Amino acid sequence: MNTSNTETSATHHQPQSGVQDDLALGHRLRVLRDRAGLSQRALAKKVGVPNSTISLIESGKMNPSVGALRKILDGIPVRMSEFFAFEPDPERQIFYAAEDLVEIGKGKLSLKQVGSTLFGRAMIGRRRCVLF
């Protein structure tokens, strides 16, 4: 008896192994949707899927089937080959919490590294004052 399952739903929840790939797929979809001037809700309504579907795909929490992805891309409109060939710029972190800044100064001058590398980053300097 053959017990193989065929996918019948438009989307399925993502197993942990491909999470990074699905985040990339979701980021790519979000960038193209934004460039087309469509909100998640407008795109969902245009292609006839629930509002949450676009959000879940973009956040990497849901992996669309090929048919569902094609339907969504038709609403942008973008061809499947263009979608997978598109390489969006990586997301940049703009705001950093104080605990994310690495102390790189010595002595009385405090220098904090902003970001994970020094390349193209600003440094914030602040004098440490001791009051007697």
Describe it for me?
This protein has 132 residues and is α+β, with helices and mostly antiparallel strands. It has five helices and five strands. The protein has helices at 19-35, 40-47, 51-58, 66-74, 80-85, and strands at residues 11-13, 62-64, 102-103, 109-113, 123-127. Helix 2 packs across helix 3 (51-58). The longest helix is centred in the N-terminal third of the chain and has 17 residues, at 19-35. The model is unreliable at 1-17 (pLDDT under 50).
Going by helix content, strand content and strand pairing, the class is alpha+beta
Low-confidence sequence ranges: 1-17
Our estimate of the beta-strand percent is 5-15%
**Number of extended strands:** 5
List the helices and strands and how they pair.
Layout: E1 11-13, H1 19-35, H2 40-47, H3 51-58, E2 62-64, H4 66-74, H5 80-85, E3 102-103, E4 109-113, E5 123-127
Helix pairs in contact: 2-3
Précis, in short:
Helix content is 36%, strand content 14%.
Provide tags for this entry.
single chain; two-stranded antiparallel ribbon
